Amino acid sequence: MNASIDVAKLAKAHYDAVFRFCAVRVGADRASDATQEAFLTAHRNAHTFRGGSAPLTWVLGIALNECRRLLRKEGREGYLPDFAEPAGDSPESRLVNSEVLKSALARLSEEHRAVVLLHEIDGLTQVEISEVLGIPIGTVKSRLHHAFAALRKAIYDDTARKEGVH
Fold first, then answer.
1. Could you tell me if 88 and 75 lie in one domain?
2. CA-to-CA distance for 55 and 103, rounded, in angstroms?
């Protein structure tokens, strides 16, 4: 099945979403370049869009590859977003501070970090993650399971170390 895609309309409708997606991966200062390159690549490759996924999901896959290319070009392994400290005095808001979360995410493999960011930051479903990354849904589920287990352990270890618990 070969679907027609109008990249100009897609860019007009979803530029902000792709920009935010890129900003999480390369930082706000490089997100504009990554977003522009993603839409240019989409335009050059519009004929390859088959309609098997939503057009936005297709462009996010291109944007992810562009962000990775940009980081490799700069000799950086990855970029981790800054997380705002949760507001309020609820027990949940005090459980994990942003530095502990960032440290735990940094210890994940690139494959595990990618699925966590796509799921938790970008709000994509497991099916959409599968389409963006070009991997089977079972692999997405497995990576999420193992990534969250590793995050829980890393956060517990960091918190216990800071509180002097062994």
1. no
2. 33
C-alpha 144/C-alpha 142 separation (Å) is 5
Q: Which of 79, 107, 127 represents a domain boundary (last residue)? A: 79
Domain check: are 106 and 28 in the same one? no
State pTM to two decimals: 0.77
CA 54 to CA 50: how far, in whole Å? 10
How far is residue 8's CA from residue 11's CA, in Å, rounded to a whole number?
A: 5
| Residue pLDDT, tens place only, 51-83 | 888 999 999 999 999 999 999 998 876 666 666
3-10 own/partner pairs: CB under 8 Å, 24+ apart: 3/49, 3/50, 3/51, 5/42, 5/46, 5/49, 5/55, 5/58, 7/39, 7/42, 7/43, 7/46, 8/43, 10/39, 10/42, 10/55, 10/56, 10/59
